[in-house]
């Protein structure tokens, strides 16, 4: 018999979810069979699988050690050089500034040194994440950016942090603002609502004005400066779907500068030549925390900002003049 004691990083999750992480190569069917046969117990008694775990709970696994080990994939931390900047950090969360060109998560098995790889290695070096000591939890990202979009990404260092940030995002109590440069001069603030579907084969999205034709997406925008046929916009992202801002801006005739999928080839070529811009001018600039209750209530009213990358700042200075 093997006994597992639940710690802070395992609490507030369902027993079945914990077991699927702990024995991550086991099938759901196998685990439920073991629960029915009372080969897996909670605090010495029968368990159904839907119980919410609390710190101090104990699980008893009446399984051979060889069986348990065969279902557990060893967790390791790959060495990864840090390319992100740290905007904010506490015991539960880490807010970083991602450079353009860096994947947030691996998209295929050969992808290495992604943002999550770098964050895990950073926490491992600090002694804040030790795979062998964590029975089921791994620090995780709570939002993601396209590879060629720079700016703020939030990671949960603890299960409490991951769950709290995910709930804040789900209930729209985290305001997310982006900075983008678009082709054409936008004179007034506006709002775009459209229904979005993704073409997985082409890795591109389509928009429709017809309700029910995909996920509902909303973007607010306001001009900050315009000159020489271009506009610097502040984007308030109400929903956050794949390629949302890029597709929305193209749909109103103001594509994002440098965008290879939804942009203007004429504009892209101009900025490649003049500023060596190799990615879209889209930067996750700022978040504002609006949750008054819960584990992260101490963040209420805080703003966190990621500085504009050097290339994007040079473009702004060249178009609109250097800001003091």
Folded structure, characterized:
This protein is α+β, with helices and mostly antiparallel strands and 324 residues long. Helices cover 23% and strands 27% of the residues. The protein has eight helices and 14 strands. It has helices at residues 15-22, 28-36, 65-70, 115-125, 159-170, 244-251, 265-275, 310-320, and strands at 2-5, 40-42, 58-61, 85-89, 93-98, 140-141, 150-156, 174-183, 190-199, 204-208, 215-227, 230-237, 282-289, 303-305. Strands 4, 5, 6, 7, 8, 9, 10, 11, 12, 13 and 14 form an eleven-stranded mixed beta sheet that branches. The protein has a three-stranded antiparallel beta sheet with strand order 1-3-2. It is elongated.
Blueprint of the fold:
Elements (H helix, E strand, L loop, with lengths): L1 E4 L9 H8 L5 H9 L3 E3 L15 E4 L3 H6 L14 E5 L3 E6 L16 H11 L14 E2 L8 E7 L2 H12 L3 E10 L6 E10 L4 E5 L6 E13 L2 E8 L6 H8 L13 H11 L6 E8 L13 E3 L4 H11 L4
List keywords for this structure.
324 residues, alpha+beta, 11-stranded mixed β-sheet, 3-stranded antiparallel β-sheet, 23% helix, 27% strand
The pLDDT mean sits at: 92
State the low-pLDDT regions, or none. none
Structural class: alpha+beta
Topology as a string of helices (H) and strands (E):
EHHEEHEEHEEHEEEEEHHEEH
N/C terminus separation: 67 Å
> β content, as a range?
25-35%
Q: Output the radius of gyration.
A: 23 Å
* Helix coverage percent: 10-25%
Count of DSSP E strands? 14
Biggest β-sheet strands, sense, barrel: 11 strands, mixed
Q: Given the structure, what is the number of helices?
A: 8
CA-based shape: elongated
């Amino acid at each position: 018999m093997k006994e597992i004691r639940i710690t802070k990083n395992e609490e507030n999750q369902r027993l079945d979810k914990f077991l699927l992480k702990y024995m991550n190569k086991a099938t759901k069917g196998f685990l439920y069979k073991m629960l029915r046969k009372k080969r897996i117990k909670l605090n010495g008694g029968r368990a159904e699988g839907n119980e919410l775990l609390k710190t101090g709970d104990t699980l008893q696994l009446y399984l051979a050690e060889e069986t348990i080990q065969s279902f557990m994939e060893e967790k390791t931390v790959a060495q990864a050089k840090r390319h992100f900047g740290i905007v904010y950090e506490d015991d539960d969360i880490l807010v970083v500034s991602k450079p353009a060109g860096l994947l947030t998560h691996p998209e295929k098995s050969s992808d290495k040194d992604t943002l999550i790889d770098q964050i895990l290695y950073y926490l491992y070096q600090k002694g804040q994440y030790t795979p062998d000591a964590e029975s089921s939890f791994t620090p995780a990202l709570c939002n993601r950016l396209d590879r060629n979009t720079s700016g703020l990404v939030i990671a949960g260092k603890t299960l409490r942090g991951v769950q709290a940030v995910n709930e804040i995002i789900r209930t729209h109590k985290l305001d997310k603002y982006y900075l983008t440069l678009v082709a054409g001069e936008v004179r007034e603030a506006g709002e775009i609502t459209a229904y979005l579907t993704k073409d997985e084969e082409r890795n591109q999205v389509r928009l429709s004005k017809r309700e029910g034709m995909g996920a509902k997406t909303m973007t607010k925008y306001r001009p900050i400066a315009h000159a020489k046929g271009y506009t610097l916009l502040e984007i308030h992202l109400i929903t956050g779907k794949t390629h949302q801002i890029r597709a929305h801006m193209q749909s109103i005739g103001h594509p994002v500068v440098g965008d290879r999928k939804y942009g203007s080839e004429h504009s892209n070529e101009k900025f490649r030549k003049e500023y060596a811009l190799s990615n879209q001018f889209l930067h996750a600039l700022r978040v504002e925390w609006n949750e008054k209750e819960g584990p992260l209530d101490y963040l209420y009213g805080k703003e966190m900002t990621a500085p504009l990358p050097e290339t994007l700042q040079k473009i702004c200075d060249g178009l609109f003049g250097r800001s003091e």
